[in-house]
Structures are given as structure tokens and as C-alpha cells.
Amino acid sequence: MKKLLYGFSLLAIVSCKEQLPVIEPTVITEKTPNDTDDPAIWVNPNDASKSIVFGTDKKTNGGVYAFDLDGKIIHEKSIKNIQRPNNVDLEYGFKLTDSTKTDIIAFTEREKQQMRVFSVPDMKPLDGGGFKVFTDATELEHNAPMGIALYKSPKTETIYAIVGRKSGPKTGYLYQYELVSDSLGVHANLVRKFGDFSGKKEIEAIAVDNENGIVYYSDEGHCIRKYYAEPSMGDEELSCFGGEYFTEDIEGIGIAKYQDKGFVIVSNQQAHTFNVFDLKTNAFIKEINLGTIETDGCDVTTVALGSKFPNGLFVSMNDEKDFFFHDLALLNLE
Question: Where is the BPP domain (predicted)?
């Protein structure tokens, strides 16, 4: 949520940011027509240097834009004329009916109260025009989808979409849908409602640690919440942490995992910085300044993406209709 600051002077926030050295981006993308919001990184399994970053452009005439690693828009891979796409996520190896597999992206289309699912990299719709979400909602903003994250169960290889919304109840704010393919096509079946909400602002950013089966989401004015992503593990909250380190809105979440350690990187939106937490302990590690303004979404991969990003890639939305790409080593996580 980008909005005026409450209880903080702009001068104070700018001064706070200036105290941190700016880590200059490796690449700044071409601009989208309207309002960038959230990215997702697809690692090309055949040639990592030809990987794609997808980023939403949030407006009634919006889209999901594809960028190469030089930050240039790949128009033939972009999905346009989407009615207010909000967040986007990506998963690998979705099983189709003919036993083949495809990578997929999923994103929310807020003004149509639905989520969309497309194959990657051929960018074909798999959803018959969209899957309606929050169909039992009785209040207007309770069926306006915003955040989305895909989770692939390491036990069953089932892929789920976990979807958030503009507003919702104090419990059961998130809906989790199982994506399945049969002779009639692809379906999204609701499997559970979970997740607490403070009621202070809204919940948008959602991210999943697939290997550990954990979902994180930003209760924007309160904390980072942590639950099991596997439905069979139950709906008990595992942690509510980090709120004291944020100026106001807790926004985009990226999870960087190495063999022996991991990090949760979260946008401190009104401070124009990012807070880094330990993946195992939730402990605060440091604050970093990547030069972005009012960052909503972010994504990260530790996979080497050719000569330009040999240490992995961190992508963050910048409130000037573009995205910043940083070689992951620049963040000094290890």
C-alpha cells in the first residue's frame, strides 16, 4: 500500500534513508505504462542467462510484463489488458493431464475478483479466462484479491495458490486453492481458509519457503506472520515477528536460501529500505538501502543467472514504473 505517512515527517524518513549507503542496482528495467507492483523470477532451466523477470503493472489497462536480464521488455512474453493485476508468483513442474509438466505463473486480477494462471515460457492461459476467488465474501473489499504465492508440496508435488485480499476477517483472511488438471482442464479447488489479521491495514505480500513448507505474509501495520503452507499441518500461527523494525507498512517479501542459511528480506516501504531477518530464528539482521522508492513487491533467487548476475538476483519494485535488479552479492547476505 502506497500512501501518505502517518505520524512520520517525510524529512525524517529521507534523513533515515540517507544514513544508509545506497547499493546501486546492476540493472534498471524499462518503464511500464502505469504502476509497477510485484515481480517473479523464472529461471530458464536450459540457459539461466536467458531467464525472465515478470512484473505486474497495476491498473485497469494493466498487464504482467516480461523482462530480460538487461531490463528490456519482452513484448511477446508479456500479458496485457489485465484489469488491475496485483501480485504475481511462479512455480515449476505443474502436471498437466497428458502427464507432461509446465512451469506456471499465477497472478491476481483484482477488478475481476479472480486469479489467472499461465504456462511459462510459452505464456498460454491455463485457466479458461480466470478462477474466481473469495466467492463466499459478503463485503466489497473482501473479494478483491491482491497477494498471491504458489506453494509446491515436497511430499505430493501438489501446487497450491495462497491468495490474499484488500480486506478481510480477523481470521481466515487467506484462501488456499489446490491447482489440478484433468480431462476437463485446469481447476482451482478451495482447500482451506487460514491466517490471522490485525485489522490495522491490509495483507498483500505473501511468500513461501517450499522446502520447509512455510508461508510468510505481511500484516502491514503489525508484523510478519508465519504459518505452515501444507494444509495437513494445521492452521496454528507459528510466529508474528519483526513489526518493531518497520516505519509503517510491511510490504514485499523475498526468501533467499543457501545450503546452510537463509534470509527473509522485507520491504520497509515508507523508509524506502529493506529489513533482513534470519530464516530460521526470525532474528533481525540488518537494514539495507537498494535505492528504490516505496517498494511494494520483491523476489529473489540464489541461482547464478549468467555473467550479469553470477551470484543470483534480487528484484525490487520501484515507484517510478520500473524494477531494480541487483546481483545478490551486492546485498552482502553471506
Answer: 13-334
- Domain spans in the chain, listed from the N-terminal domain onward: 10-331
Closest CA to 160 of 169, 168, 151: 151
- The CATH number for 10-331, chosen from 2.120.10.30, 2.60.120.230, 3.30.460.40, 3.20.20.80, is 2.120.10.30
Look at residue 290 in the predicted model and tell me its pLDDT.
98
Q: How far is the C-alpha of 233 from the C-alpha of 223, rounded, in Å?
A: 22
Tell me the residue type at 315: V
Antiparallel, parallel or unpaired: β 223-228 and 203-209: unpaired
No. of H helices and E strands in the chain? 1, 24
- DSSP symbol at 14: H
Provide mean pLDDT across the span 53-71.
Answer: 98
Q: Which residue type, as a one-letter code, is found at position 37?
A: D
| 225 bridge partner residues | 217, 240
Q: What's the predicted TM-score (pTM) here? A: 0.94
Grid coordinates given for 48:
539461466
Give the three-class secondary structure for 85: strand
**Contact present, 112 and 146 (Cβ < 8 Å):** no
Could you tell me which residues come within 8 angstroms of residue 48 by beta carbon, excluding any fewer than 6 positions away? 303, 304, 305, 306
State the cell numbers at 7. 505520524
**For residue 11, pLDDT beyond 50:** no
Q: What's the average model confidence in pLDDT over 70-94? A: 98
Q: Which residues pair with 275 in a beta bridge?
A: 266, 287
Number of other residues whose CB lies within 10 A of the CB of residue 18: 11
Query: What mean pLDDT comes out for the span 288-311?
Result: 98
Given a cut of 70, whether residue 157 has pLDDT beyond it is yes
Burial group, residue 20, by CB count within 10 angstroms (0-12, 13-18, 19+)? middle
What cell does 330 get?
A: 551486492
Separation in Å, CA 269 to CA 13, 135, 164, 181, 221:
10, 31, 19, 38, 11
Decide: 275 and 244 in contact? Cβ < 8 Å: no
Q: Are 162 and 176 in contact (CB under 8 A)?
A: yes
Contact (Cβ atoms closer than 8 angstroms) between residue 253 and residue 207 = yes
